[in-house]
Task: structure prediction
Amino acid sequence: MDIPESGKKKKRSTGIVGLNLLLDGGFPVGTTIMIYGTPLAGVDLAAMQFWKVDGEEGTYLMNDGDVGLGMIDASDLHPGMYMTHMAGGRIVVDSLSTIVIKYGIEEALKFLRLARDEMRQRGSNIMFIVYTGIHMPIEMTRLMRASDIVVEFKSEISQAEIERTLAVHKMKDGASPRRLLPFIITDNGIEASTTSRVV
Result:
């Protein structure tokens, strides 16, 4: 966990250096983070980097993909059972989209609210992956409203290149950064730009 500067809230590294700089140190401790985008936009890599950074204990609940080393297979777990498996300061649910599809938006929101309260009490952070293009707009709106932080990962093809950017749309108790953060996907995961262009 990052050490807070005097008078500032404690923050936990995002796992992406450029995003840490954009957020003045990382995600505030005790917050609920929703990251969303297409499966090709890098959301799974961002979640993995958040989970693994700093060697801090955490839990990765996988319910719709391949279960990797150290992850928990949550494919057969009801969301009400997730809480008993959550340990450490960095919790990832991959994905909240699957919970919405399998159990409905009301059950997903109930779980999200319970998890949010638990994270605040424990001083942990929980990150949910939500995939775009599969939920109704009202469902996306409700998920965003229930989250403390909302980060969108975009991927666009421009001429002969893939341009990737992320945008922080919502920050609980603070202003969201006003600029997009360009990033690339490398063998080591997501690398975001740490410089801003002066116009």
